[in-house]
Amino acid sequence: MLMKKNKNNDPRTLLRYRFFTVAAAMIGLSLLPVILFLIITLAYQADPAKHISASKRLMPQACDVDVSDYIADGGSAMIVDNELNVTLLGGKPIWDKAAFSETEWADFLTGIDNLSGYDYDIAYHSGDDGYWLIMRKPESVVMIFSFYFNPEAENFTKDIIILIGIFLVYFAAVAAFVIHYSKLTANEIKAREELLHGEEEKRMLLVSEISHDLKTPLASVLGYSEMLLSKDIDGQKQREYLQSIYDNSVRSNNIMHSLFMYSKLGSAGFKPNTERTDICEYTREIIAEYIPIFEDKGFGYELDVPESEIYINIDKELFRRVYDNLIENAMKYNKAGTIIMIGVEVKSSSVEITVADNGIGIPAEHIDRIFQPFFRADSTSANRDGSGLGLAIVRQIVTLHGGEISYIGDDGGCKWLIKLPTT
């Protein structure tokens, strides 16, 4: 594969993402009814008059106990003295006899927690005239391990409506989540299909371009080889044929090498071997190697590099290809006499490297495609010796270094601007 592997397409990553997303959503939705119950319960308890405890209602004399507000709110109350005699204070009878036997009283007290549908509040006033105050109120909905409905409660109808409302809100939230998540999943699947389709088109394009670029030199190698083997050719022609075979072999090798580099730089997990480097000294050393070539081929050059040290992290061997490609392109596509300019300038948080020339430039209609693999702005036979991957490789290298490259064209040639972060 020539495309960089996208970790988001890893099935295991997608499975984990979907599992945790759905799990978190379901936990949140499951807690929603509980939260709503708590909110409503707190709202019910906001009126302190309805929840004056039995212990705070005790008086020295049982006859002075006031539970009228509690009775008016739908509750019931009774007094049980030390002799276990029962006095109803109001509401529906809690005990249907005038007194308790000791066994009945013990069973009553121990069985209160098991009496479903009622809320009990009990307090005892000690002394010779001691008594028990027992208050009971029906709960419209009691949730322990199951639901109990008590139609005797004053607000039963209203509470049932609230309960239904809570479940409607819950199911609406679940439905909204399912619909939303389904849409997201559908959009994600569509996006992945489009991505795969686009990557497949790129792969086919790469295969097509590779086949096309290798076809011509390999055909030449094959043709001249057959002629050398099948005919008696004089020394001069033989030398010409062998030179052509050699040149086309070199061209094929360059194409394959560039393709390997392009694939390597785009592979998942590839990282440049960076080291702290003085970019000014590094640039001067490279240009010094090119000066004899400039002079031999008739190109002028200008160098604008500060004498001070500017340090950045680069893979020196890898970044050399950036300079080589941009400088060699300037010489390949321009005539002798063209001036090639290289500059380095430090900004607040970055270093800007420029490689420019005053040659023919690049036509405006091609600028959007110059970094695409196998694209050549000049496709004449004279300039088809390259692989068409040079600028694509340059952008990959710059990107791997955390930088960016852009083309700045004008009437007097072209200018490549590279921005890299400082250390």
Q: Explain this structure to me?
A:
It is a single chain. By secondary structure, the chain is of the alpha+beta class. The protein folds into 3 domains: 7-43 and 163-200; 49-153; 271-421, Heat Shock Protein 90. Helix content is 49%, strand content 18%. The protein is built from 9 helices and 13 strands. It has helices at residues 11-44, 54-57, 68-72, 102-111, 156-230, 235-265, 279-297, 316-333, 390-400; strands spanning 76-81, 86-90, 118-125, 131-138, 141-143, 147-149, 275-278, 300-304, 311-314, 339-346, 350-357, 404-410, 413-421. A hairpin with a 3-residue loop joins strand 10 and strand 11 (350-357). Helix 1 (11-44) packs antiparallel against helix 5. The longest helix is centred in the middle third of the chain and has 75 residues, at 156-230. It is elongated, with a radius of gyration of 44 Å. Residues 1-7 and 379-383 have low confidence and may be disordered.
Beta-strand percentage? 15-25%
Structural class: alpha+beta
The overall pLDDT, averaged over residues, is: 80
The description of the largest β-sheet is: 5 strands, mixed
Integer-rounded radius of gyration:
44 Å
Distance between the termini: 34 Å
The CATH architecture term of the largest domain is 2-Layer Sandwich
Write the layout of secondary structure elements.
Blueprint: H1 11-44, H2 54-57, H3 68-72, E1 76-81, E2 86-90, H4 102-111, E3 118-125, E4 131-138, E5 141-143, E6 147-149, H5 156-230, H6 235-265, E7 275-278, H7 279-297, E8 300-304, E9 311-314, H8 316-333, E10 339-346, E11 350-357, H9 390-400, E12 404-410, E13 413-421
Parallel strand pairs: 8-10
Antiparallel strand pairs: 1-2, 1-4, 3-4, 5-6, 7-9, 10-11, 11-13, 12-13
Helix pairs in contact: 1-5, 5-6, 6-9, 7-8, 8-9
